[in-house]
Amino acid sequence: MGKKRILFVDDEKLVLDGLRRALRSMRKIVEMDFATGGHEALEAMSRQPFDVVVCDMRMPGMDGAQLLLKVKERYPSTIRIILTGQADDSATKRAIHVAHQFLMKPCEHEKLKTILKRACLLHELMTHPFLKSTVSGIDHLPSLPDIYIKIQQILDDPGSSVEDLAAVVEKDIAMSSKLLQLVNSAFFGYFNDVKSPAKAVHLLGIETVKSLVLALKVFSGFENEETDPDFLTYLWNHSFETAIFSRAIMNSVSEDKTDVENAFVSGLLHDIGKLVLASSLHEDYKKAMEIAQKDQVELRRAEFRVFRASHAEVGGYLLGIWGIPGDVVEAVTFHHRSHQYPGKHFTIAATVACADMISHTLQPETCIGSMPVLDPKIFVNQEMTGEIDKWQQMCREIKEQGNG
Ligand SMILES: [Fe+2]
Ligand SMILES: [Fe+2]
Q1: Which residues neighbour ligand 2 (ion) by CB within 5 Å?
Q2: pTM over 0.70
Q3: Domains of the chain: which residue ranges?
């Protein structure tokens, strides 16, 4: 990876000086530049490209959300990170739609370094010429479902209620009946007791329902003559199972509710790149599946031979341009190479990798080509390696209950 360029934007010079000092050790891998306001930042970006922009939320003149919106329009491949003091003020809520990552101030320097390294790595993958040429061969990339945007708007509005959200979900009759079917499946353990989207929100929480709605809408967007319906059903079942397993695994290693939720939605969407490739470039995708089966290699490796990119990068790319939270984009992009993904903790990408592998192990016929291999490096310490057997047992029980 060549040296990446990061632009920091903050109206307080002292903050910029602090960042400059704290991140000095990164100078070998990144070039840093500093701007004291939105206009200065845009000027710097017009002179030379930046791979990552980290900006303060509250700045006079142009605030962080306004700046990142302009960056998104003019330089869509730049990774956008916002540093904010208040998580729930209205300006920050506006920024949700334009930032890949949110960091709360004060941010520990080590954490900031890890986030920046990840952002650089993601940028490297997303802008890789092979990925770009594959993506440009896709006639039209699906767009972020409207209903997801509406749900997000309701969540952003402090005056809205669960009923408002449920009303939006109920309007889409086909989707809401699928949602209720899922929520009533034995996987969640509510035993056919959930009769309305409002109750689903009440029992599962807004975030889980939002994730399910997103995944259901994304998958139904592929119900057309180009996509093999059997492949669609197979991929949905595998994705849903991977989501349930990811949630359970993350629950056993982290108490952070956001991590658990992000693991769930990452599991739901982890293989979305397969759908994008299979529906737009179906002849080539068939070829990749044949290679995987004939040569008994992992499907993602066969995809690489055909497209020079795999479903993981294509999926991550799509979610990235949709503005889905950075943790999810990263987990999807790195779910087959989570050992290369920096971090001191067991990551969401590693969680999804384990869940994916367990899903295929419990039902080997669902695996096209050879089984995905887990790199032991994903386990941050030795004791964790032993966890995989426990998780496998746990997931087996969940599956039996789900099928029961
Ligand atoms: Fe995958
Ligand atoms: Fe998978």
Answers
A1: 271, 356
A2: yes
A3: 4-127, 146-403
